[in-house]
Amino acid sequence: TGDEIRGRDTGARDTLARLPGVSYSAQGGLGTSTTLRIRGLDNKYIGVRLDGIDVSDPSSTQTLFNFGQLVGSGLSRIEVLKGSQSALYGSEAIGGVVNLQSWRPTRDGASGEALLEVGSFGTVKGSASAGFRSERGEVALTLGRTETDGISANADNDEKDGFDQTQITLSGRVAATETLTFGANAFRRDSETEYDDLTPGDNSGEVTRDETGARIFAELLTGPVTHKLSYSKFDIDRRYPGDNVRAFEGTRRELLYEGNATLGATAKLDFGLSRTVEEAQTSSNLDEDETVVSAFAELRWRPSDRTTVSLALRRDDNSDFGVETTGRLGLVHRRDGGVTLRAVAGTGYRAPSLFEHYSGFGDPALQPEASESYNLAGG
Length: 379
Description:
Layout: H1 2-6, H2 12-16, E1 22-26, E2 34-38, E3 46-50, E4 53-54, E5 75-82, H3 86-89, E6 96-102, E7 109-119, E8 123-134, E9 137-151, E10 161-175, E11 180-195, E12 205-222, E13 225-240, E14 246-263, E15 267-282, E16 287-304, E17 307-318, E18 322-334, E19 340-350, H4 354-358, E20 369-378
Parallel strand pairs: 3-6
Antiparallel strand pairs: 1-2, 3-4, 5-6, 7-8, 8-9, 9-10, 10-11, 11-12, 12-13, 13-14, 14-15, 15-16, 16-17, 17-18, 18-19, 19-20
């Protein structure tokens, strides 16, 4: 929750690493490239969403999200789903999914909060959030800034690798009628991260990242069925200035329909269709795209007050690799004394990134990785 995220760590990677089965490794201090692992599977097997927008980088070597730049300010909730989630989220969700939610007002009327943190290594982090909530809707705005002189990640020198980042998030929704709601959310994040270049004696490496995401949606209630139609777009521009400028640009556009139907008193059905287009361009002459059309459904059934059964199926049709079908079966049983037993079996896959497939270092013959996972837990 928000208090747990903002009150303990400057970087959210440290907060996430306190969860069972979650760890990370980093190439340096705050802002540097960071690999998060869920049950041993790293970034390229983890899906990441911010307010419903897929924020993994389609122009990266593997399609993934850099957790080193994720600071806790401006977030009200982080959800971590462990195990294969491809039946719900498609490619990259073999290890799990991290869902991020930006700050939202928690009571009716105007509200807000401010955070200022000052620490060692010249670290300053601040944010301010303001919003308004009523029966008809809500609006929220957060501005954040993080600066740090950093540390030296290279044992051969003491030159510090700094990190600066500015972020803004905006969200809102309004009920036009009792059955129709419109909404939108957007974010912008600009950062600069210093690093030690691979060239011996060159400590002047720097990467700049400009990220923009936006999403609009409409939700309509028709009897026992809720319909939601959304469109989102994510752009990322990474640049490594120097004698030979290296540039990476990625874009993702997603059109998504989701339905939710109540089937009597004990069952619910979630279903939907989506069309996603990913594009990647680099200064090394990579300029490719792919389209994925998906259909998915999940049935949740409660045979008793203590037991829930879920069954999910998904079919992804990739313009490069053809069709991938994934499934997930879950069982949750609540026993006396507050003990909950969970059993999940699922299949998943990870499609090669555009870089892995089409770049000069890639292999056009690469096919998606496939996985099976079985989890049994109690607590």
